[in-house]
């Protein structure tokens, strides 16, 4: 059995779908991010990477909840560690964004705080990072 999360960034929102290769769609979540305009040029619009990543984390949380996975979320900021889950496999690297795990714990890739961490492509030559391969983290969820 394989369960994957697909991510689709749109103009003003991101959608995450969690799909089981046997059962089909398990859950999905959507979160919006802002579009910034300036008074000097109303035709020019920008977006911020930080807004995209915050929306991605929110959409992932919603998709996990919609899939019926019982994960406790308390702070939703990576501070309390209550959403910590076991990591089974990593392709690429884990971008830990929490303050709960120690640096040594983060470097082992044994666990992550589900509310803020994400998979990221590693730099060429990094262990566990195949050049050109998508980043993926396999988790043991409760």
Walk me through the structure:
The structure is a single chain. The protein has 142 residues and is an alpha+beta fold. Helices cover 17% and strands 35% of the residues. It is built from 2 helices and 10 strands, in the order βββββαββαβββ. It has helices spanning 49-66, 103-108, and strands at residues 3-9, 13-20, 24-32, 36-37, 45-46, 84-91, 93-95, 111-113, 118-120, 136-140. Strands 1-2-3 form a 3-stranded antiparallel sheet. It is globular, with a radius of gyration of 16 Å. The model has no long low-confidence stretch (mean pLDDT 85).
Keywords:
about 140 residues, alpha+beta, Ubiquitin-like (UB roll), 2 domains, 3-stranded antiparallel sheet, 2 helices, about 15% helix, about 35% strand, globular
Rg estimate, integer Å: 16 Å
Oligomer: single chain
Give the biggest sheet: 3 strands, antiparallel
Instruction: Provide the residue-averaged pLDDT.
Output: 85
CATH C-level of the largest domain? Alpha Beta
Strands, count: 10
CATH topology of the largest domain: Ubiquitin-like (UB roll)
Structural class of the secondary structure composition? alpha+beta
- CATH 4th-level superfamily of the largest domain: Beta-grasp domain
Helix share bin? 10-25%
Strands in their spatial order, largest beta sheet: 1-2-3
Low-confidence stretches: none
For the record, the CATH architecture of the largest domain stands as Roll
Q: What is the percentage of strand-forming residues?
A: 35-45%
Number of helices: 2
Give the helices and strands as they follow along the chain.
Answer: EEEEEHEEHEEE
């Amino acid at each position: 059995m394989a369960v994957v999360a697909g991510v689709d960034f749109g103009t003003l929102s991101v959608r995450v779908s969690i799909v089981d290769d046997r059962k089909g769609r398990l859950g999905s979540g959507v979160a919006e991010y802002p579009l910034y305009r300036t008074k000097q040029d109303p035709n020019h619009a920008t977006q911020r990477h930080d807004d995209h990543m915050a929306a991605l984390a929110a959409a992932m949380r919603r998709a996990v909840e919609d899939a019926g996975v019982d994960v406790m979320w308390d702070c939703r900021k990576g501070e309390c560690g209550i959403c910590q889950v076991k990591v089974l496999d990593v392709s690429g690297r884990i971008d830990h964004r929490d303050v709960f795990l120690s640096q040594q714990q983060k470097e082992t890739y044994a666990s992550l705080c589900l509310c803020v961490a994400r998979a990221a492509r590693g730099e060429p030559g990094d262990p566990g990072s195949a050049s050109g391969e998508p980043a993926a983290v396999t988790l043991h969820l409760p």
